């Protein structure tokens, strides 16, 4: 048999083996098809329909009578070979009928999943709040989650409305942080404010069932709490929180709450950042490890008490059912609860448990409850981590067991598999990859179980008294302190986390296990021959002449994965790196963005960003923001109502989350301004009128508004918008900059000006007789002129350039340099070479 025929025969045998596996486990196949339908239903209904159609066509093909087989099969009578209508031999016909039945079942499962997702989404989206949007609100609501801090001193929490419009529905309550400080889950509050449409960037709230935004001006706790089973659960959680913090320093108490009850939001900012950088964040998100450790603890206690096996299983099942809502009921703990329950139910039924079936069942249950759960990063990371553990952990454990002690091999294999599986998603969602996560997780393993077991003991004892919980927390303090130290030490390693394009990370994570698990014989063969010849021979022989179809499939799959990821990296990597490779700067950067004839000044410091003006309509503002690595804006300033300043504001609001808009249109009507207001309303972004004396803060950035002064509209009706434009001074540490918009010296010289480091020259460098006097007061080191190439206005004017040169300033023009980036340093202001 030739090499080509042998390869074709092996591939056909592999396909038959894979299909035989699916036929032997139809529950797995049907459940996987239903999950596929639930995933595709909300995102791409046409894809679900296409998949079902292909399955039906394949089923029809299976039932068709193959003429070639009829003519060539020696078991058929002559009449059948001559074309007479005879049926196939019984075994072949039975297999084909079984295949057709399974294919039709898969098609039905896909359609059922997609249809069920559509029906469920319609039910979830049904709301009575539609007519009340943009109206005043005065409602009582029960807090469903701990309030989370937002920018500008605000906080938000998911609540359930108890009175008024939308009673019984979930909404996102947003108010001042001090108004929500100390409000516990289950407490009833009265909120007064206004109903708003839920902004598009609040996708997490929409996935959790929120229908609208309640922007509250005042929030008052009524003292009441919800009752029933959820009220009882709230009281249990409150006592558990107090017990876990008893006798512990605040950071360690917050860490204990995070590890035992999944309350990761309770971590202090510094400790939270250390856990992120060290790749240990999963420890403070309740997941499968918590459920497994809880079940192990219940089994051990029941065995010590002499409880029979079946009763132990029932107690463990009850403990799991109670723990899932107690730990917040998030996507990862839901998945873990369903998988744990499936294992326990299988044990009760004396049947072997399948972890793959448990994972598919968990996906089906969580998606049936909320088809939008698949968009949650926690849901994705949870299922990808489990799949990676099922696929990669066993072979890695086997390979490592020959070189390491068994416990170390297990811990390393699990950490390596989970890290390789989740790294691409972490890079995609959180824009970072930890390089120390594997050693940090291996070192953390000995401390995780004691914290969980002692924490459960403290939470249980705390239902009676925090005094009884104190011995448990005193013992837990040691492993908690070790974990806090480990996170800080790992995060302090130079290069502990890096920014990398998701496709690059995916390529590395796909290649690593393939290389690590390759057999020595393959490496020896590749070393003896040229790489291309060795690869061709390995492919032609299907991984060895004596290789079984399964072995051939594994190696062929690994080769295909490597080839695909390498091709994707080569083709898409440069473009993705170019698009997402720019990251928010670590320090202060001031950028005069090249948007043509218009103004757009971007100020960034770490994760904080302020954009002053957006350039003309249909300008490249979004591309420039993407090049600067901007993912959200704390403040968008629209200095005045002219197209070269406000033209791109609506596009920015539609593309990025924005904290607030400092709206300097001053009542002037324009089409660009109308689009801006409409986009702000749609996204739920506040429009704030400017007034001299205002101070806006975003991280270390401070924006002092110097002009205009608020006056009755009648006093400045018909005035030049340039004279009423927002003039502001930007400060960050010792750096200062005057942002002048189009206001010229007749306006600027009347303001309380101080010397600054950088001046944004007014009105694109137009002629201004008062510019020398202004420069004498400001004494800047550099002047930025934001102006378009070959503009019809003659900007910048020779008079303005002469005044700037006479003052000895560094003149930086966007028409000559493109985007200009300034980085203040201890040695002075440096012009970024990339600009």
Overview of this protein structure:
With 835 residues, the protein is of the alpha/beta class. The chain has 6 domains: 3-125, no CATH class; 130-226, Nucleic acid-binding proteins (OB fold (Dihydrolipoamide Acetyltransferase, E2P)); 238-373 and 444-501, no CATH class; 376-435, no CATH class; 503-580; 588-714 and 721-831, 4-Layer Sandwich (Metallo-beta-lactamase, Chain A). Helix content is 53%, strand content 15%. The strands form 4 sheets. Strands 14-13-12-11-10-9-22-23 form an 8-stranded mixed sheet, with helices on one face. The protein has a 7-stranded mixed sheet with strand order 15-16-17-18-19-20-21. A 5-stranded mixed beta barrel has the order 1-3-4-6-5. The radius of gyration is 32 Å and the shape is globular. It starts with a helix and ends with a strand.
The end-to-end distance, rounded to whole angstroms, is 63 Å
Describe the strand arrangement of the main beta sheet, using strand numbers. 14-13-12-11-10-9-22-23
Helix/strand-derived category reads alpha/beta
- What does the main sheet amount to? 8 strands, mixed
In CATH terms, what is the architecture of the largest domain? 4-Layer Sandwich
**Percentage of residues assigned to helices:** 40-55%
Can you identify the CATH class of the largest domain?
Answer: Alpha Beta
Name the quaternary structure: single chain
- What is the CATH third-level topology name of the largest domain? Metallo-beta-lactamase, Chain A
Could you tell me the number of beta strands?
Answer: 23
Arithmetic mean of pLDDT: 80
Radius of gyration: 32 Å
Unreliable sequence segments: 68-88, 529-550, 552-581
Tally of discrete structural domains: 6
Shape: globular
Strand content: 15-25%
* DSSP helical segment count: 31
CATH superfamily of the largest domain: Ribonuclease Z/Hydroxyacylglutathione hydrolase-like
């Amino acid at each position: 048999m030739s090499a080509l025929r042998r390869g074709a025969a092996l591939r056909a045998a592999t396909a038959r083996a894979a299909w035989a596996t699916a036929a032997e486990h139809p529950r797995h196949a049907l459940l996987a098809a239903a999950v596929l339908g639930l995933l595709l239903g909300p995102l791409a209904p046409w894809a679900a329909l296409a998949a079902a159609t292909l399955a039906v066509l394949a089923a029809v093909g299976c039932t068709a009578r193959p003429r070639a087989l009829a003519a060539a099969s020696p078991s058929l009578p002559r009449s059948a070979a001559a074309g007479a209508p005879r049926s196939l031999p019984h075994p072949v016909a039975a297999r084909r009928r079984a295949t057709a039945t399974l294919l039709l079942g898969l098609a039905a499962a896909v359609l059922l999943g997609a249809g069920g997702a559509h029906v469920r989404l319609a039910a979830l989206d049904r709301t009575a709040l539609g007519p009340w949007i943009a109206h005043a609100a005065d409602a009582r609501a029960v807090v469903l989650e701990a309030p989370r801090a937002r920018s500008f001193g605000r906080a938000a929490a998911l609540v359930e409305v108890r009175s008024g419009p939308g009673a019984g529905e979930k909404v996102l309550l947003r108010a001042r942080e001090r108004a929500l400080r100390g409000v516990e889950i289950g407490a009833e509050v009265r909120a007064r404010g206004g109903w708003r449409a839920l902004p598009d960037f609040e996708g997490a709230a929409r996935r959790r069932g929120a229908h609208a935004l309640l922007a509250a001006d005042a929030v008052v706790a009524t003292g009441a709490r919800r009752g029933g089973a959820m009220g009882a659960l709230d009281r249990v959680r409150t006592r558990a929180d107090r017990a876990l913090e008893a006798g512990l320093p605040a950071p360690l108490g917050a860490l204990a709450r995070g590890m035992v009850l999944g309350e990761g939001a309770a971590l202090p900012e510094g400790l939270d950042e250390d856990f992120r950088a060290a790749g240990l964040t999963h420890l403070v998100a309740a997941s499968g490890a918590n459920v497994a450790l809880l079940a192990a603890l219940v089994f051990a206690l029941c065995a010590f008490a002499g409880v029979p096996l079946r009763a132990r299983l029932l107690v463990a099942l009850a403990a799991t059912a109670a723990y899932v809502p107690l730990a917040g009921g998030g996507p990862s703990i839901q998945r873990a609860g369903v998988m744990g329950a499936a294992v326990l139910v299988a044990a009760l039924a004396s049947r072997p448990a399948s972890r793959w079936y448990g994972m598919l069942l968990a996906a089906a249950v969580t998606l049936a409850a909320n088809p939008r759960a698949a968009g949650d990063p926690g849901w994705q990371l949870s299922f990808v981590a489990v799949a990676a553990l099922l696929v990669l952990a066993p072979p890695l454990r086997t390979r490592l067991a020959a070189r390491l002690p068994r416990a170390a091999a297990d811990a390393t294999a699990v950490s390596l598999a989970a890290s390789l599986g989740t790294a691409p998603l972490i890079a995609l969602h959180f824009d970072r990859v930890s390089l120390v996560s594997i050693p940090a997780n291996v070192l953390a393993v000995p401390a995780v179980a004691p914290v969980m077991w002692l924490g459960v003991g403290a939470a249980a004892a705390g239902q009676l008294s925090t005094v009884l919980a104190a011995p448990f927390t005193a013992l837990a303090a040691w492993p908690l302190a070790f974990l806090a130290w480990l996170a800080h030490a790992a995060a302090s390693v130079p290069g502990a986390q890096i920014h990398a394009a998701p496709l690059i990370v995916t390529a590395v994570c796909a290649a690593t296990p393939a290389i690590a698990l390759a057999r020595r014989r393959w490496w020896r063969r590749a070393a003896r021959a040229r790489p291309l010849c060795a690869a061709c021979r390995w492919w032609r022989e299907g991984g060895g002449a004596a290789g079984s179809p399964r072995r051939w499939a594994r190696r062929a799959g690994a080769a295909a994965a490597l080839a695909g990821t390498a091709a994707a990296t080569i083709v898409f990597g440069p473009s993705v790196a170019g698009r997402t490779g720019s990251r928010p700067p670590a320090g202060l950067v001031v950028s005069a963005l090249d948007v043509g004839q218009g103004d757009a000044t971007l100020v960034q410091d770490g994760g904080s960003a302020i954009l002053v003006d957006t350039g003309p309509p249909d300008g490249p503002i979004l591309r420039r923001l993407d090049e600067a690595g901007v993912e959200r804006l704390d403040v968008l300033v629209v200095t005045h109502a002219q197209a070269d300043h406000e033209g791109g504001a609506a596009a920015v609001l539609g593309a990025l989350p924005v904290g607030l808009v400092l709206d300097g249109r001053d009542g002037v009507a324009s089409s660009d301004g109308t689009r801006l207001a409409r986009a702000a309303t749609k996204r739920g972004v506040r429009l704030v009128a400017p007034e001299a004396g205002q101070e806006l803060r975003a991280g270390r950035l401070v924006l002092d508004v110097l002009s205009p002064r608020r006056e009755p509209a009648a006093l400045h009706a018909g005035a030049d918008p340039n004279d009423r434009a927002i003039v502001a001074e930007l400060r960050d540490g010792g750096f200062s900059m005057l942002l002048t918009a189009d206001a010229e010296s007749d306006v600027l010289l009347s303001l309380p000006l101080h010397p600054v480091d950088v001046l944004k020259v007014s009105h694109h460098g137009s002629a201004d007789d008062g510019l020398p006097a202004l420069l004498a007061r400001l004494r800047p080191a550099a002047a930025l002129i934001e102006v378009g190439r070959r503009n019809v206005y003659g900007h910048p004017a020779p008079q303005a350039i002469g005044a700037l040169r006479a003052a000895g300033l560094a003149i930086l023009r966007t028409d000559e340099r493109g985007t200009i980036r300034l980085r203040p340093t201890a040695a002075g202001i440096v012009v970024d070479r990339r600009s």
